[in-house]
Amino acid sequence: MRTELDAVAAAALEQYDFSPEAVTLVNVSENLTYRVDDRRTGRSVALRVHRPDYHSEAAIESELCWMDALREDGAAEPPRPVRARDGARVVTVVDARGRARHAVAFEWLPGRAPDPGGDLVPGYRVLGSIAAKLHAHGSRWRPPSSFDRYTCDYDTALGPQARWGRWQEGLGIGRPERDLLARLDGEIAGRLADYGTGRDRFGLAHNDLRPANLLVDGDRVQVIDFDDCGYSWYLYDFATSVSFIEDDSRLPEWTAAWLDGYARCRAVSADDLAMVPTLVMFRRLLLVGWIGSHHEYAAEAAELGAGFTRGTCALAEAYLAGEFLTPSPYRSR
C-alpha cells in the first residue's frame, strides 16, 4: 500500500518545476502529506495527496479561494499553494486502481505546532481569537458562484450517510455501547435542532482548528490545513480544537481560554455558551465513526482504537447526566 501511495505522490510531483531529491511522508489522515525538499534550489513544499472521493477538484479550488481571500484581507496567513508547470493549483493523477487522485503543493512554512505536553492555555486563547477572525471574515465575504464547500451538520456528521464514517460501525461497539451512544445521538440531534443554523451561529469555518494545525514561529502564528473548511456551527471550531482529548482534566481551562480569546473579537451569547458541551460531544461521536472507518490506514485512528469508544461512553454518561463541561467554569468574564 505504501509503495502504491508513494507512486501517486511521485506522479503528482512530475507536474511541478522542482527536483524532489527528498520526499518524506509526514502525516496520514484524510489525506497524505509529504515534505518535499529540492536541495538544488533549497526550496521545500508540503504535498497533500487527497484520498479518493473526498473532495472534488472544484471543492479543493474553493478551499484555496477562501485561503486567498483570508490572506488578501489580512484575516489570516495560510500557506500559499504552489502552481504546477501548467499553472494549475490542483493536479490530478490516476492511481494503480484507476482512481483519480487530486494533489496540491503548498509552500513549506517555518515553525512548530504547540507542545502538547506544555501549558496549552495561551495557545487556546490564540486559537479562539483566530477562529473569531476567520468567522468574522467568512460571515461578510461573498464567495464566487463557483464556490463549493460541504456543510457539516447533524445529517452529514452523524446521519445514515455520515461523511466520516458511522459511529454505529466504530470499534468496540457492542449492544450496551450502541444503546448508550444512541441515547447520546438523540440528545445531540434534539439540541442542535433547537439551537438552529442562524447566520449569527452557523457559517463558513475552518472545521479542524486543532493546535496541531497551528504553526508558531516566534511571535508569528499561522493556520494550516483548511482541507475541512466548510459550513458549520461557529463554535464547532472549538469542539474540533479538543479532538481526541475531550476527556482531559484540563478541558475546562482550555474552554475558558478559547472562549476568552474568541469573545475579544466576536460576541458569544448565552445560547452559544450553553451549546459548547453538545458541540464537543457531537465532534466526539463523529470521531468514533472516523476511527472505525480509518483505523486500517491512519495510525492515529489505529492507536486510539476501541479505547476511544469506551472513553466516549464514559463522557456520554456524564453529558446525559448534565455533568459534562457545565457552563460555570467558562462563563464569559
UniProtKB/TrEMBL annotation:
Residue intervals of the Aminoglycoside phosphotransferase domain: 29-267
Keywords: Kinase, Transferase
One annotated GO molecular function: amino acid kinase activity
TM region(s), chain numbering: none
UniProt keyword annotation of Ubl conjugation present: no
Pfam families: APH
SUPFAM superfamilies named among the record's database cross-references: Protein kinase-like (PK-like)
Presence of the UniProt keyword Kinase in the record: yes
Family: Belongs to the pseudomonas-type ThrB family.
Protein known as: Phosphotransferase
Organism this protein belongs to: Amycolatopsis rubida
